[in-house]
Amino acid sequence: MGFVSCLGSAPSMAIYCHFLLLSLLLVPPALSQVSEFVSIDCGGTTNHTDSRTGLQWVSDSNLMRTGNSVSIQNPDGNLEQYKRRRDFPIDSNKKYCYNLATRERRRYLIRATFQYGNLGNQDAYPKFDLYLDATKWSTVTITDASRVYVNEMIIRAPSGSVDVCICCASTGSPFISTLELRPFNLSMYATDFEGDFFLKVAARVNFGAPTKDAMRYPDDPYDRIWDSDLVKRQNFLVGEARGTIRINTTKDIWVGTREYPPVKVMQTAVVGTEGTLSYRLNLEDFPANARAYAYFAEIEELGDYETRKFKLTQPYFPDYSNAVVNIVENGNGSYSLYEPSYMNVSLDFVLSFAFAKTRDSTRGPLLNALEISKYLQIAAKTDDQDVTVLNAFRSLSPGSPWANEGGDPCIPTHWEWVTCGKTSPPRITKISLSGKNLKGEIPPEIYHIRELEELWLDGNSFTGSIPDISNLVNLRIMHLESNKLTGSLPKYLASLPNLHELYIQNNSLTGTIPPTLLTGKVIINYEHNPGLHKEAKKKMHFKLVLGISIGILAALLLLLLGSLVYLLHHRRKNTIQKTNEPGSSFRASAKPSTAYSVSRGWHLTEDGISYYISLSKIEEATKNFSKKIGRGSFGTVYYGQMEDGKEVAVKIMADSCTNLNQQFVTEVALLSRIHHRNLVPLIGYCEEQNQRILIYEYMHNGTLRDHIHGLLIKNHADLFPLPSLCGYQLLCRLKIQ
Ligand SMILES: *[C@@H]1O[C@H](CO)[C@@H](O)[C@H](O)[C@H]1NC(C)=O
Ligand SMILES: *[C@@H]1O[C@H](CO)[C@@H](O)[C@H](O)[C@H]1NC(C)=O
Ligand SMILES: *[C@@H]1O[C@H](CO)[C@@H](O)[C@H](O)[C@H]1NC(C)=O
Ligand SMILES: *[C@@H]1O[C@H](CO)[C@@H](O)[C@H](O)[C@H]1NC(C)=O
Ligand SMILES: *[C@@H]1O[C@H](CO)[C@@H](O)[C@H](O)[C@H]1NC(C)=O
Ligand SMILES: *[C@@H]1O[C@H](CO)[C@@H](O)[C@H](O)[C@H]1NC(C)=O
């Protein structure tokens, strides 16, 4: 059964269709291969059967709604499928794609053909690009209106369907005449490289052909096109050696069980009666590495003492050229196919090839057929996860043109509503679906589109809450205004490191706005959300708190500078000391009395040492947090006593910010090195089981200082996800220096 799905890429018209081409049951068994063929008559207005071949052609009118059907004068062979072509708009930003259903990992021949017909009143012949998925297949350059330009690709299907796309016209309007899909059953075209390379067919020639007509279905059950060597065109099989004759036989040829050339192709050949057989032909898009197969079958009756032995003399490949071809001996006797498998050879744009007989051979070289394909590197398609997200959006509006642009979202041209990064595989960096009348919830899949920088969903009717986008660390701009979104504003928005513009006005959001979103770092518009408000208390004190904390931070800076100077001085002294006492270790020079439990990479500094103190040690010291000595908005403070009797105040940070990071830890470390009469020395720190605990020296009369310090720490914690406030930044900078 042939199954075709299609996506028209017209923005103006939407199509999305699947249809069964033929049912296996209706086709006589002899033609069963045909049932798997897909033959699309592009621009054709009716379905029709080719009476000579029995091939069933379907019009693409249900597959492609963009472009016009244009009738052609002098169609090739007066064939129905060449009577009309499909012309696409001249828009270099658009691609027009046919989606062909495939079975993953099965091998196929895909063929696109182009016959332009007469130039008519167009002023230039078309020139445009052909793509298979994201891989550039060919540039189609029409120079002869009557010629049928054939592009063939042999692939192992990378997925459940492939896209054949036409795009990027540089002159004229792009068009297509036919599109054909022919499955293979066997392994003839298996290569070591098929996971990474398609095989772009460069030449397939039937030597000694009876007429100029190409040999194809039904002679070839796989409908390959075997060009006749009688065809005359520029740079195609020129420079034939003297004494070349054409031979044929009516005897059956054993062609083996793989997809070897059909018997009819093998029944004819050319022979270089003067000892050499040579030709020259141009190979489009070469030089390249190629799979170049020569097919031989002895179809002359050789006398008892006659031999036919020859070598490939040109091009010269050491591995191949030194081997003597003796068809009867190498193969399976006369009238039997032999093929030496030139699996990977490097060929030039102008291929001159020659076979020459060996001295002891009585007959000249013989050649029945040739097939040369270029290894074409498969280009990466847009990241799978990103495509999943885009598909979730498309499914919200299955009928709209924007949801039915075919092919890959990014290559060769990107869909109208997305922008792509330049990476390989491409990633989506922007989604613009403003005012598309979208309903329902914003697809939760959005969580996975990690490289997204801009999200424009404003002016739709999205309902539900804002989905989890905590993963979108690259998000800079988000427009969700004028929807019907409900629920609260997620706290983590404040910690998205690149978020710079947030528009959520005119929705039905509720709750409080995380205060860090209101510090000026993010351009935020949240009007017309009746249930959404700022944090009332904090707002009142905010300026005061900010003022105090800036003041304290400024003081801290001075102190820090001072202590840095001191530190440098002290360290120099220490180094001198150390060099003087060879046996002394680093640990010995630190103050052991303050070391409780070092379980992490923690800085040891000569003054104001903070240590990582394990939660169990803290539980021990505070007797499981039994004595509460204070409480502030920053958290609860407990009394404790360390192993060595040192009295401590233990603060459990009541901070909703759950993504603890090392940066904060380092900041605390920095604070701990600062001594000031208004500050209680920080002696330890713990971060376990989502708990963040600070351990201070206990001060019996420390209420005031404790208060100020608590305020500082509290603000510090609040500022933590927002590294733009001046104090914080300065601290960071100083730390780095
Ligand atoms: C051609 O055949 C297909 C199914 O095989 C059908 O869906 C389509 O409508 C037909 N087109 C025309 C123009 O009859
Ligand atoms: C390929 O396989 C299909 C069934 O899978 C069969 O119908 C068809 O005849 C085969 N083709 C050839 C050329 O053997
Ligand atoms: C086959 O070869 C004979 C000569 O051996 C020739 O007369 C005949 O025309 C050839 N037939 C074809 C179809 O080329
Ligand atoms: C072919 O051979 C060349 C050199 O021998 C190698 O670099 C290349 O990877 C091979 N395969 C293809 C598909 O080019
Ligand atoms: C050789 O050819 C004969 C038919 O001529 C065929 O039956 C046989 O399987 C072939 N043997 C091999 C090894 O290809
Ligand atoms: C608010 O959003 C609705 C759609 O949800 C829209 O029709 C309306 O124009 C918007 N109002 C303003 C003031 O933007």
Automatic annotation (TrEMBL):
Its EC number is 2.7.11.1. InterPro entries: Kinase-like_dom_sf, Leu-rich_rpt, LRR_dom_sf, Malectin-like_Carb-bd_dom, Prot_kinase_dom, Protein_kinase_ATP_BS, Ser-Thr/Tyr_kinase_cat_dom, Tyr_kinase_cat_dom. GO terms for cellular component: membrane. It is found in: Membrane. Its main location: membrane. It comes from the Eukaryota. Residues 1-32 form the signal peptide. GO terms for molecular function: ATP binding; protein tyrosine kinase activity. ATP binds at K651. It is an enzyme of class 2 (transferase). The chain crosses the membrane at residues 544-568. PROSITE patterns: LRR, PROTEIN_KINASE_ATP, PROTEIN_KINASE_DOM. This is non-specific serine/threonine protein kinase. The lineage of its organism: Eukaryota, Viridiplantae, Streptophyta, Embryophyta, Tracheophyta.
